[in-house]
Design goal:
Residues 184-327 form the 3-dehydroquinate synthase C-terminal domain. Pathway: Metabolic intermediate biosynthesis; chorismate biosynthesis; chorismate from D-erythrose 4-phosphate and phosphoenolpyruvate: step 2/7. One of its GO terms (molecular function) is 3-dehydroquinate synthase activity. By secondary structure, this protein is an alpha/beta fold. Helix content is 43%, strand content 19%. The protein has helices spanning 27-34, 51-59, 82-94, 109-121, 137-140, 178-195, 197-206, 215-235, 250-260, 267-286, 293-301, 314-322, 350-360, and strands at residues 4-9, 14-19, 42-47, 68-73, 102-107, 128-132, 145-150, 153-160, 166-168, 332-339, 342-348. A hairpin with a 2-residue loop joins strand 7 and strand 8. The protein is globular.
Length: 362
């Protein structure tokens, strides 16, 4: 199939998101087409899982006249650390990147967050592009939120720095293990819950397994999910309003990730549990029946465990949620649903949350 193109309008610039099988092999051609100021040199930042699979494809897309450097970081959430951030900036300095150089983030969400934060802060900001290689990164690569983790919380140090271009190659997803599919698909179904009930219905019908994909179905899923994210980001670039809705399922999800130890449970697996918790809170707070059973059954059929891990304590999770970025004045703010497609941000008392957590953690 051919290209699908979305455009995201931000205060910095408008940038294209190109969804096209094989586009990683034409990276330079797309840069040449869409980036008006020619970069002086390029630094591709990737990880040790992605490098053997796709780094050569991207490097070989450049003519020999271009200066292309590469830097490979360890795979996994541990690379979103102060230590790895400093080492990556050091590499950029050693390669003598200047303000007209371009950083290329080739990888999943961790690489995109790290490379984007390096780009945001290096010499007070240089351009970068995203080449996501995971389903999870279809979400994180759009919207300009970049950063690293702190021992007290996920994504606590970062910036808003919009990419100049996003190249999404569905072919790169076909090498993903099933757990990585689950990690990313939770964000897809989240987008349906907050903004597009038709997308939820489409997912129930068309996504039957993570083992075999029709490329047209995969590309359409990416397009529809990214469209939700792009629409929200354009309306609220700096998360002062509706962009907070994208955190549906994430308040508890982030707490589960942190409490379990980063990497013990994937982001999407934690978010899926957080979505179930947020749905139950929504029904309790607003006295509604969201009729979410078919969608949760779909998650279960795809291998999700939707219960809070037994080894985690309710008190520990509540403490983690209290330092969530959305919290203020000691009130934990949850994204809840009055109906599917109608999210609201609701202040919740710790007592109510703890009672619900204790019911969930058995």
């Amino acid at each position: 199939m051919g290209s699908s193109i979305l455009h995201v309008h931000s205060s910095q610039h408008t940038y294209p998101i190109i969804i096209e099988p094989g586009c990683r092999k034409r990276t330079f051609a797309f840069i040449d087409q869409y980036i008006t100021r020619k970069p002086t040199k390029y630094l591709i930042i990737t990880d040790d899982n992605v490098a053997p699979l796709y780094l050569e494809d991207v490097v070989h897309s450049f003519p020999s006249s271009e200066t292309v450097e590469t830097y490979v970081v360890p795979s996994g959430e541990q690379s979103k650390s102060f230590k790895q951030y400093e080492e990556t900036v050091t590499a950029a300095l050693k390669y003598r990147l200047d303000r007209r150089s371009l950083i290329i983030a080739l990888g999943g969400g961790v690489v995109g967050d790290l490379a984007g934060f390096v780009a945001a802060s290096y010499m007070r900001g240089i351009p970068f592009i995203q080449i996501p290689t995971t389903l999870l990164a279809h979400d994180s690569s759009v919207g300009g939120k970049v950063g690293i983790n702190h021992s007290l919380g996920k994504n606590m140090v970062g910036a808003f720095h919009q990419p100049s271009l996003v190249l999404y190659d569905p072919e790169a997803l076909l090498s993903l293990p099933e757990r990585e599919w689950r990690s990313g698909f939770a964000e897809v179904i989240k987008h349906g819950f907050i903004a597009d009930k038709d997308l939820l219905e489409w997912l129930v019908t068309h996504v039957t397994s993570f083992q075999e994909w029709d490329m047209d179905i995969l590309s359409e899923m990416l397009y529809r999910s990214i469209q939700v994210k792009a629409n929200i980001v354009q309306e609220d670039e700096k998360e002062q309003g509706v962009r907070a809705f994208l955190n549906f399922g994430h308040t508890l999800g982030h707490a589960i990730e942190a409490e379990a130890g980063y990497g013990a449970i994937t982001h999407g697996e934690a978010v899926a549990i957080g979505i179930v918790y947020a749905l139950r809170l929504s029904e309790k707070c607003f006295e509604v029946n969201l009729q979410s059973a078919p969608y949760l059954e779909k998650l279960k059929s795809l291998g999700y465990q939707l219960d809070i891990p037994k080894q985690l304590s309710a008190d520990g999770l509540l403490e983690r949620m209290s330092v969530d970025k959305k919290a203020y004045n000691q009130v934990i703010r949850f994204v809840l649903l009055k109906a599917i497609g109608k999210p609201v941000v609701q202040g919740m008392s710790g007592t109510v949350l703890l009672d619900e957590l204790k019911r969930e953690v058995k």
